[in-house]
């Protein structure tokens, strides 16, 4: 199981690096083409817009891997230490629930987009690029459900202390 998780984590890391490098390379190519040749790649701007969506969701998936999402943690400062596991469990369930809901509606959006038959650029269907929405939120929901389960049995990893 650890090997599979390690492979999945390396795949996510590699995919985000690949998308960022592609975005930088394509943006530089666009600048060079516009300034030197007075032209541009027509499909580059729509691809870059979709790549931003992918970067955001891949980054969120990677952050959820170790529970490193941005959080406002007022409860830890004011509540007794013995209540924190309960609050953390509630936050894990709430996060998973919202992400499952977003994945569900994202899936509906992708299905409708597929039925509509929209094209993003260069013959690539838009639903294919937008499929990262239900996938990303589904993965985040699964990870927070796992964190909740680990919390129930007292094996949830401790959150990292925020840096000042």
Q: How is this structure best described in words?
A:
With 164 residues, the protein is mainly α. The protein has six helices and two strands. Helices cover 74% and strands 3% of the residues. It has a two-stranded antiparallel ribbon with strand order 1-2. Helix 1 (2-37) runs antiparallel to helix 2, helix 2 (44-65) packs parallel to helix 6 (132-152) and helix 4 (84-116) packs antiparallel against helix 6 (132-152). It is elongated.
User: For the residues shown, what is the average pLDDT?
Assistant: 90
Helix content: over 70%
Structural class: mainly alpha
Q: Which residues sit in consecutive blocks of at least 5 with pLDDT less than 50?
A: none
Strand fraction band? under 5%
Instruction: Compute the separation of the termini in Å.
Output: 36 Å
* Spatial strand sequence of the major β-sheet: 1-2
- The string of secondary-structure elements, in order, is HHHHEEHH
Query: How does the overall form come out from the CA principal axes?
Result: elongated
Count of helical regions = 6
Number of strands: 2
Largest sheet: 2 strands, antiparallel
The Rg value, from CA coordinates, equals 20 Å
């Amino acid at each position: 199981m650890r090997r599979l998780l390690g492979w999945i984590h390396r795949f996510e890391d590699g995919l985000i690096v690949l998308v960022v490098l592609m975005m930088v390379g394509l943006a530089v190519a666009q600048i060079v083409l516009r300034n030197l040749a007075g032209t541009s790649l027509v499909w580059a701007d729509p691809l870059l817009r979709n790549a931003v969506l992918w970067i955001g969701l891949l980054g969120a998936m990677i952050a959820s891997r170790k529970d490193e999402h941005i959080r406002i943690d007022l409860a830890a400062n004011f509540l007794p230490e013995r209540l924190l596991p309960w609050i953390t469990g509630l936050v894990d369930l709430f996060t998973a629930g919202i992400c499952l809901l977003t994945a569900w509606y994202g899936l509906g959006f992708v299905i409708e987009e597929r039925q509509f038959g929209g094209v993003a650029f260069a013959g690539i269907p838009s639903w294919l690029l937008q499929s990262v929405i239900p996938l990303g939120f589904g993965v985040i929901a699964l990870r927070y459900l796992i964190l909740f389960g680990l919390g129930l049995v007292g094996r949830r990893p401790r959150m990292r202390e925020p840096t000042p």
